[in-house]
Amino acid sequence: MTQIDFYILGESSHRNINQMVCQLCEKALTQQMNVFIYTESSDQAQQLDDLLWTFKTDSFIAHENRLNKTDIETSYPYPVIISNDEVSSSYKHLLINLTANIPVFFKQFERVAELVGKESDEKEIARSRYRSYLQQGYTLNKYDL
After folding, report:
1. What three-state secondary structure class fits 14?
2. Any idea where the domains of the chain sit in the sequence?
3. What confidence tens digit (pLDDT) does each residue in 15-44 have?
């Protein structure tokens, strides 16, 4: 069964959420995991695309921004994909959900990371997802950062 992790961030700015996405990607890659970042908007995808190239001064996180594209099978399978559409079944390790809803395809992943800012509207949206996962029988982990 998919492991669901909620990360409650100390600050709500999108920059901090994006930094956390980069940290999760970096950690996942050290564990030989592939990552699918599911975004809400093209602006959000572009911000992450830019940040993954510059996240650290001495390295970058190899990735592909596949916004509005469903065919992500390439000759070089990128370890990190950014998209606002469903992902190929070959991506199965970590889903980072940056949308307000639970993706219908989340069950194909071993792990789902839900990032939550400190603003009241962000918390309320996250609580709704939390309740939905619980109602489906998932055990949830919560990390206050």
Report:
1. helix
2. 3-144
3. 689 899 999 999 999 999 999 999 998 888
